[in-house]
Amino acid sequence: ELQLVESGGGLVQPGGSLRLSCAASGFTFSSYEMNWVRQAPGKGLEWVSYISISSSTIYYADSVKGRFTISRDNAKKSLYLQMNSLRAEDTAVYYCARVWFGTTNNYYYYYMDVWGKGTTVTVSS
Amino acid sequence: SYELTQPPSVSVSPGQTASITCSGDKLGDKYACWYQHKPGQSPVLVIYEHTKRRSGIPERFSGSNSGNTATLTISGTQAMDEADYYCQAWDSSTVIFGGGTKLTVL
User: Fold this and answer.
1) pLDDT band, residue A82 (cuts 50/70/90)
2) C-beta atoms of B90 and A45 within 8 A
């Protein structure tokens, strides 16, 4: 069974740090790109960050650039998100998801076909 | 920055057809996909590359694209289809989600 399990969420004060983890099973983790997506309370889905198979290509949303760092360990079949300088607006459920990304017919496609159940991050004093 | 616009809500009677639109500048030059998201659950990929139905998704779900608008159509809508639906595309090193559409089946 394809599975992604996030962990590491919790309550943290503004300015604090947190490291999220995502453990993959049921597929060859080292063959897939991955990303993080979040959903703040009462809001829609927001993409956070993307990482390629070899970690050579990384993208971030402007809202987290310079504060968050995505990484992966293919040997451990795990994805990570290091979150520093946390703000109240970072409060959200954070999902990791498997990514299909490339071009066909000269158009870019990007979609996420396997999602974890999410881990909740609350930034509050 | 690139934006995708969806109607905040759509209502449909059981058995009828629901259409949810997603508009963006030159969206036809990018591949859009659609996710279904029910409260307390993880998002589920429904449609990718504008029109391809993900394996295991009922045939009543279909996607189309015309110019600047992608459309998710649910034929013979069922109560279980009530959820938030999000379109999503890739543009300039960024993943963009639409604001989401709450589908109510009443």
Assistant:
1) very high
2) no
CB contact under 8 A, A50 and B44: no
Instruction: Band the pLDDT of B67: cuts 50, 70, 90.
Output: confident
Q: pLDDT per residue over B29-66, tens digit each?
A: 889 999 999 999 999 999 999 999 999 999 999 999 98
CB neighbourhood size of B15 (10 A): 10
Instruction: Please give, rounded to a whole number of angstroms, the shortest distance from the CA of B69 to a CA of chain A.
Output: 16
Nearest CA in chain A to B46: A113
Q: Residue A5: in which H helix or E strand, if any?
A: strand A3-7
Residues B85-106 have pLDDT tens digits of 999 999 999 999 999 999 999 9
* Contact yes or no for B29 and A107 at CB 8 A: yes
Interface test with A, best of B48, B52, B90, B102 (most A CBs within 10 A): B90
A32 residue type, one letter: Y
Whether residues B96 and A47 touch (CB distance < 8 A) is answered with yes
